[in-house]
Amino acid sequence: MFYDHQQIEKKWQKYWEDNQTYKTSNNTDKPKFYVLDMFPYPSGAGLHVGHPLGYIASDIYARYKRHQGFNVLHPVGYDSFGLPAEQYAIQTGQHPAITTEQNINRYEEQLRKIGFSFDWSREVRTSDASYYKWTQWIFIQLYHSWYNKNTDKAEAIDSLIQHFEEKGTEGLNANQNDELNFTAEEWKNASDLDKEDILLNYRLAYRAETTVNWCPALGTVLANDEVKDGKSERGGFPVFQKKMMQWSMRISAYSERLLQGLNTLDWPQPLKDSQEYWIGKSQGAQVQFQVEGHDEIVEVFTTRPDTIFGATFMVLAPENPLVETITTDAQKAEVDTYIEETSKKTERDRMSDVKNVSGAFTGSYAINPFSNEKMPIYISDYVLMGYGTGAVMAVPAHDERDHRFAKKFNLEIKKVVETEEDVQEKSFDSKDSVCVNSDFLNGLHYNDAKAKIISEIETRGIGHGTTNYRQRDAIFSRQRYWGEPVPIYYKDGMPYTLPASALPLELPEVEKYLPTEDGDPPLGNAKEFAWDEANQKVVATDLIDDKTVFPLELSTMPGWAGSSWYFLRYMDPQNDGEFCAKNLSDYWGQVDLYIGGSEHATGHLLYSRFWNMFLKDRGWISHDEPFQKLINQGMILGMSAFVYRIDGTNQYVSKNLAKDYKTQQIHVDVSLLKGTSDELDTEAFKAWRPDYADAEFILEDGKYITDREVEKMSKSKYNVVNPDDICEEYGADGLRLYEMFLGPLEQSKPWNTQGLSGVYGFLKKFWNLYFNGEVFEVSDEEPTKAEYKVLHTLIKKVVYDIENFSFNTSVSSFMIAVNELQKIKCNKRNILEPLAVIISPYAPHICEELWNLLGHDTSIEFEKFPVLNEDYLVEDEIEYPVSVNGKMKFKISLSAQLSAKEVEDLVISNEKMQQILEGKTPKKIIVVPHRIVNIVI
Description:
Low-confidence stretches: none
Mean pLDDT: 94
Distance between the termini: 58 Å
Number of strands: 38
Structural class: alpha+beta
Helix content: 25-40%
């Protein structure tokens, strides 16, 4: 019977939409299971075949859990704010909302074609005002919260104000920007403006001067993970370090909890390692050093206070405020030049560049508080202002980077940890030795020396033992248009939040999407964007009088804001009264399976954990962590095609002749190849772009053969394969099975369209099991043991594979089972019905159609998954090979229940064996049960 995949898939996609098959109920006594894909950003290019890989895996799992009787939440939505739509708006003038809507429609059309079991009724978009109303609401709650280290959680700012009113800062243990000291009386006497300024020092969302990655070409601040090698990831524009007033999120308050929480999560170890490194916990001491001839003190954080006697110089971060104060006139020009150079590097570049040594001498000296020796003070880009105190004591004998610096600038290298190695040539970084040249620490091992020096530091009042974290607070402002407006207005230069009743603060219309002529962000171009405090509404900007009408914040939120809580909104997407009802977040709880790319390790996955912990602290949800199990899917790589252009000509030489010419290798679109071959359609190539119209070709055997190479699938490499074309030719079920069949989910693997024919052939075979010629024919006769064995072998394998996310081996098992059933001409209902259920998570359209033909009028989606019966896997008979003196002579079938002695007796009495023995008695008989019989004569 002809397998018409196009007709079948259209029919069932319409059925699922009309019947809302995948709509999830919140009112059920079923156990829950929450399966989620990382939020897609709807780009203009649409999906290529690499994008659905993770979605197909999560969809298989979601369908499997429905078959197991779970109430499955498997939603979809769009992370629809972002730079690409804004850049397009700048170039064309088209509003980003229009571009985004078009892109989403294209994405949705493609996703529906692949047959995903998403609950489309729960779709959210971060750029919808009904959604970002709650992103703004969460920002306001962060603004009105502080982190109480005594209770180890965020609390309402009112409790901090109460503490100030009763005790001032006495007994306060809070995360803060600066350590403040004042009495309750001083707090009460402070002006309202001063009180607001003090509270900004503690708020979880706060405004402060920060060093940022500023990209002038994009007119915005970028996150560290949006910058690569000193350039913006989008567009490749230069990025500079710059000090600006910015909104920040106090994620640093959660560093320890974010670190400890990793122990409770089933995540890939490399991803946990990334977060652990990013958070960067280290234990050591904070020590103060006097600067000769100055009142200033340099405070350093060191993880090796036991080596302080070997500290021979000091290095400050170029942006450390002390640099300006302590730099001598003679060194000023050199220092200023170096600071200018450093501003062109991001923190990430500076951290990763361990080979290059550079720096400048300030002309000043610090005094080592233990050796009393003078230590020259340098600046260098390997010291970061954001980590520790922005200053390090350099111990070149025992730190590789300090050693390289000392060698370059000819500075003293003093051994203080015992080693046979020559520390003048190479640093010795080990903690497995004892202190030397260190006065009262001599002879002590690392732990004892560290404890003793910290005690001495504290006794002398020049510092204390402490724990430090590399993780900095997250910058929360972007100087761009297409993002969530920050719900803040300014009164007397101080920020105030809008009332919740005024939310959402909607994005205003602007004439142009670039910064204003005064350098304000694009929202500065808005005509209706001021806050009327008296009437509690947004009004025209020309009404601003700073008495009753005030300016609104012109920055927008970063790209990660909306994606930091979207998993909660899916639980209750239409709720206009709260971001998610507590009973629903309690029911759905954590995401049970989260699938997405590893590139989000230190961005989205940290920010969403932070927001989730905050919302739990304040009592709005009950679970600490958002994502319990996480899988990073690998990439599907493209098979690029290349032509060889002879230098200085418009002649193109075929692959195997190119070695005879001086050529340039050029990417060509894979759609210009003939069928699934490597042969270029030369006429199509000439028509592809105007500069190829008069191309000439040097052929081999009358053909132009392209070179091929496996690379990342991307538009710029012209190796993108559109899933729509695959669905058209091989069907969505073919695409789904093939993507899983390519290899393990976590690994990267190359795409090869030719491979689809094998999977498509399997689908046709599977389809024809249910037909006799052109007639659908399924027998109600009881299956044989052999038929049941095929089915239950498959059940056992597929359950194991799905639960271990080994989707590729399941597809192989389907092929084996269908081949075996075809061989034994099985058409029994008791085999073919469960077979359709087993295969349906992978290939839902064909299985729905077969289920319908089997006489069912409901969807296959909620049928119970077949249960394994191990009895069918027990062998009745074993075919024993019989080997005599090492040579296999014959085979004999015997009952699997026989003992070794019974097998031996039956083999010896066998007619063939009697002929071989010719009356002799065997010297030795070895029976390996269920395997083989060896006889020595």
